[in-house]
Amino acid sequence: MAMATTTREWNQQNTKKIPLFPLLSLLFFTSIFILLSQFRNAITTTPSSSHSPLHTFQSHHASCDYTHGKWIHHSARTLRYDNTCKEIFKGWNCISGNKSNALQLAMWRWKPNGCDLPQFDPIGFLHNYRDTSIGFVGDSLNRNMFVSLYCTLKSVSNGKVKKWRPAGADRGFTFLDYNLTIAYHRTNLLASYGRWSANDNGGALETLGFREGYKVDVDVPDKTWAQAPSFHDILILNTGHWWWAPAKFDPVKSPMLFFKKGEPVIPLLTPDRGLDMVLEHMIPYVEERARPGAIKFFRTQSPRHFEGGDWDQGGSCQRHQPLLTEEVEELFSVKNNGTNVEVRLVNEHLYKALEGSGFIILDVTHLSEFRADAHPGKAGGKKHDDCMHWCLPGITDTWNDLFIEHLNNIKGRS
Ligand SMILES: *[C@@H]1O[C@H](CO)[C@@H](O)[C@H](O)[C@H]1NC(C)=O
Ligand SMILES: *[C@@H]1O[C@H](CO)[C@@H](O)[C@H](O)[C@H]1NC(C)=O
Ligand SMILES: *[C@@H]1O[C@H](CO)[C@@H](O)[C@H](O)[C@H]1NC(C)=O
C-alpha cells in the first residue's frame, strides 16, 4: 500500500463554541431534504446550548473533550482487520470495491485537544468484558459501527465465535472463550411504525383528508429491540436519518402520522416534533427496563458528505483527504443551509431529549464531519454515490475507540 512519508495535520481546533450538530442520512432512501425544508425554519430558532450533557459527563471523569481535535496522518498504522471480514456489507467494503484511498483511511488518528484517544486493545477488551452482552440498537449507521467492532474482535479471537440472534436482533455473535456477546437490533425510528390507510368508517385523520401514510406509535418500541434493554448490559442507541427521509416518508403521499395510546395525535406533528415525542417515550422505556448496572449510550448523528447535490441529484463525495475546519463549517453550519445541514439539527433534538437522562452521549459527530474522504462513494459500482455510510475499515473504528474509552473510564471510576 502506498504510504505517505509526511505527517499532515488538519487543524480542526475550533476557536469558539459552535453548535456541533451534524447529521447523516440513511443510505438507500434518504433524500432527507424535502421534509427538512418544511420545518427547518422552526428548528433553526432553537438555541444552540445543547452541549451540557456531554460536559456533565466529562466533569465526572475529569477526562478530556473528545469532541474537538484534529485528524493526524500516521503512515505506519496497520489495519485492525481487512476486507476478508465477512460481516462487512459489500457496499461498505472499500478495499474490495477498489476505492482508491481505501487503505489510507485507517492511517488517520483522531487527536482530541488536550488528551489522546487510544486505539482500543481488542484482546484486553475481550478479557475485561467477559460475560457481557452489548446491544447496538438503531439504523444502518449503528450496524456500520457494530460491524467494525465485530471485525476487530474477530481478528484476535481464533474463530471461536457463535453466530446467533438474541432478543429480536438482526445479527449477533458470542465470542465463546469470553462469553462476550455483541448484537445489532435494526430499528429506523426506535418507535414501531407501519403503513396506514384511511378507514371507510372515517376517523380524525380521514376527516383531515388523509388517505395513506405511516402510523408511528410514539409510545411503542419496535419489536426488534423491545427486549434489548432487559437482555444487554451495555446499549448503544441511535436514530435520526429516517426522520429526514422524504423518499420514504413523503410528506404528501405517505406522511408520518403519529399515534399515542393508539389514537392519532391531533393537532398533527411535523416529523421533528414526532422525533421529540418518540425520544420522550423511548428514553424512559430503556431506563425503566435496563438491567441493574447497565450502561446506556446514545450516539449522535453521523454526517453525510454529499457535494454537488443530494444523493439522488448526482451528489458525490470524491475527496481523498479530511476536510479543513473552514470546509467543515461551510458544509455543515446550520446558517449555510447546505445539503448536509440536517446532522446538526438532529443533534439538537437528541441533546435536548437526553438532558438529565442516565444516557452517556457518544458524540461522534464533529470528528466525523471532517471525514468526507471516508465514505464508499462509488466504490463497488453503485448507481448513486454512498456518502452516508462509512468504508470499513474506517472511521466507525474510531467511534468504537471512543465508546470503549468511555467504558474504560467508567470502569476505572467504579
Ligand atoms: C477491483 O479490482 C480488481 C483487480 O483489478 C478486479 O478484479 C475487481 O473486479 C475489481 N472489483 C470491483 C468491485 O470493481
Ligand atoms: C454469559 O454472559 C451473560 C451476560 O451476557 C450472563 O448472563 C451469563 O450468566 C454468562 N454465562 C456464563 C456461563 O457465565
Ligand atoms: C434551505 O435549502 C433548501 C434546499 O436547498 C430550501 O428549500 C430551503 O428553503 C432553505 N431553507 C432556509 C431556511 O433557507
Low-confidence stretches: 1-61
State the major sheet: 7 strands, mixed
User: CATH topology, what is it called?
Assistant: Rossmann fold
Give the overall silhouette.
Answer: globular
Chain-wise SSE layout:
Elements: E1 9-10, H1 33-44, H2 52-61, E2 69-73, E3 108-112, H3 122-128, E4 132-138, H4 140-154, E5 161-163, E6 171-175, E7 180-186, E8 191-197, H5 204-207, E9 212-221, H6 228-231, E10 234-237, E11 256-260, E12 263-264, H7 271-289, E13 295-299, H8 325-332, H9 342-354, E14 360-362, H10 365-369, H11 395-413
Parallel strand pairs: 4-7, 4-10, 9-11, 10-13, 13-14
Antiparallel strand pairs: 1-2, 2-3, 5-6, 6-7, 8-9, 11-12
Helix pairs in contact: 4-11, 7-9
The structure holds 2-acetamido-2-deoxy-beta-D-glucopyranose (3 copies).
Structure report:
The chain is an alpha/beta fold. It has a single domain (17-413), classed as 3-Layer(aba) Sandwich (Rossmann fold). It is built from eleven helices and 14 strands. It has helices at 33-44, 52-61, 122-128, 140-154, 204-207, 228-231, 271-289, 325-332, 342-354, 365-369, 395-413; strands at residues 9-10, 69-73, 108-112, 132-138, 161-163, 171-175, 180-186, 191-197, 212-221, 234-237, 256-260, 263-264, 295-299, 360-362. The strands form three sheets. A seven-stranded mixed sheet has the order 5-6-7-4-10-13-14, sandwiched between helices. Helix 4 crosses helix 11 and helix 7 (271-289) crosses helix 9 (342-354). The chain is globular, with a radius of gyration of 21 Å. The N and C termini lie far apart (43 Å). The structure holds 2-acetamido-2-deoxy-beta-D-glucopyranose (3 copies). One 2-acetamido-2-deoxy-beta-D-glucopyranose binds at residues 33, 37, 40-41, 337.
